[in-house]
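Pilot study result, target chain (390 residues):
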Amino acid sequence: MLYSRAFLIMALANFFTMSSISTFFLFPLFITRHGGNKADIGIMMAAFTIASIVSRPWISEMIDRLGRKKCYTLACLVLSFLPLVYLLFKGDLSAFYVPLLVVRFIHGIGMALAFTAVMTYIADIIPKNRLNEGLGMFGVTALVALAIGPIIAETVIRLFGFQIFFVMPGILSLIGLLLHLPLAESYIDANPRRSSPSFFSMLTDKRRILIVVLAFLFGFGLSSVFGFLTPYAEEKQLTFISLFFITYSTGAVAMRFFGGRLADKVGERRIVPHAFIITSSGIGMLVFLSGDLILIASGLICGSGHGLLYPCLNAIALRNEPQEIRGKIMGIFTGSIDSGFFLGSILLGYIGNWFGYPVLFLAAGLILFLGFGVSRIQANSGQAIPHVSS
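Predicted structure:
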């Protein structure tokens, strides 16, 4: 049974946890109001992302050894109480720069632990023949949360200021914590003393190079729209930038409802190349951005590609892998996306400064299109993406 009690409760808990994390999309406002500049914003936001990347080997081992639920509980505790620490930072940014960097780093570790643990938990309880559908539908809660969190945060900041703002994400994560506590552990290692392959040995295993490359390219492409679309649209004097993100979420959620079973039926190796084409085409459209019509069309196409691509890549990473190493597998997958996002943010930023936004989005679309070529080359060479038929 796919939609079990544990699935539904964990999905609801994930909604609140991801809403908590997404409220910090507005954290740059806190930095600027305390005297920070664009460089300070970049450093503080990068500290969060770097922490999530470098901690992946450690937290992946924790998830396999200690259990998925225990690690998710620990992450929810961090995400519930750490936001309150931000209340201690007052005055000019220079007065608390280093302590704030430390808090941002710990916050990034908490996010990485929460996301990796919950996705591994869900992978354990989803029926094998509905893996794509299950991962996709579970991801709907995160997609909705990523839209809801910033809306709530903006309203709270406008009405009550940052003191209440930092309390709010703690409350959201606390709800996620309380919701999942009654659930049983999804996997308990019966022989915790046995030797297990290390994170880095699995990362460099030839069987997993494909998913590492494809996930990296996916993250690289995402960095363009989530990092550079807003200033590009402002440069074009577009007033309703949120149209892109609304249609993006709509396309992604719709594809989760209608595309999940298709992928389980025909196999990921047939879906992934086309999903890369769809997503890269949506990003490439932004080269010609001139009005709301292209903004809406690009958002819908990009979101639809995302709605297909993420659960398919996630299923590729997990399918046929034993439970005792799924935490590491999920860490490799999510860490590869984060690494692509981080590197993409840096490289595309330089491209944008040198050649302008249209060239930036053209480069992002072309690099993402490499995913089509990689998946097709691997398939034709006999190293096809694995699939278990339903």
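One observation from the pilot: The chain has two domains: 1-182, 198-385. A full batch analysis is planned for the follow-on phase.
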